[in-house]
Design goal:
There is one protein chain. By secondary structure, the protein is α+β, with helices and mostly antiparallel strands. The chain has a domain of 100 residues: Immunoglobulin-like, CATH 2.60.40. The protein contains two helices and eight strands; from the N terminus they run αββββββββα. The strands form two sheets. The protein has a four-stranded antiparallel β-sheet, with no helix packed on it. A four-stranded antiparallel β-sheet has the order 2-3-8-7, with no helix packed on it. A hairpin with a 2-residue loop joins strand 5 and strand 6.
Length: 154
């Protein structure tokens, strides 16, 4: 058993802060793992992903503002869906006596492990107004296995 000795003008450490942090970290990792297993942690350049499970499909939405579809790559390899690309931004301003040109470039890659019940040969994607939407139909047998169960009050 360890003992904590406080000296004059010292404050006892707040263990609730440590446990709160541990709880937040655990919740973060749990959210990453279900229903998809994410294989990497997003960077500052990586798009944010919204993943939803619907009755007959999964849907992923990725925010990619300021990008063109030609700068985005989407692939599936052995159950791993990867969104990657390169973001390029250039602004140029010529005005009274000054010239300003700013350029920023960055590559990104996000990958998620797909659930076993995704028909990966039927995945489709569309890119509208900076949002990439990926539709991933469930395999027919996975949809057929799903059924509603009646609940009795007796």
């Amino acid at each position: 058993m360890s003992h904590l000795i406080l000296r004059k003008n010292e404050v006892e450490p707040r263990t609730s802060d440590v446990w709160g942090l541990q709880s937040d970290i655990n919740r973060l990792f749990e959210s990453f793992m279900s229903p998809f297993e994410r294989t990497e942690v997003p960077s500052a350049v990586s798009p944010k992903l919204d993943i939803a499970e619907l009755k007959d499909k999964y849907e992923i939405k990725a925010e990619l503002p300021g990008m063109d579809e030609k700068d985005i790559n989407l692939s599936v390899d052995d159950g791993l869906l990867t969104i990657s690309g390169e973001k390029k931004t250039e602004t140029e301003d010529k005005n009274k006596g000054y010239y300003l040109k700013e350029c920023s470039y960055g590559t990104f890659s996000r990958s998620v492990r797909l659930p076993d019940n995704v028909a990966d040969d039927k995945i489709a994607a569309k890119f509208v107004k900076g949002v990439l939407t990926i539709d991933m139909p469930k395999k027919a047998e996975a949809v057929a296995k799903s059924r509603k169960i009646a609940i009795s009050s007796k």
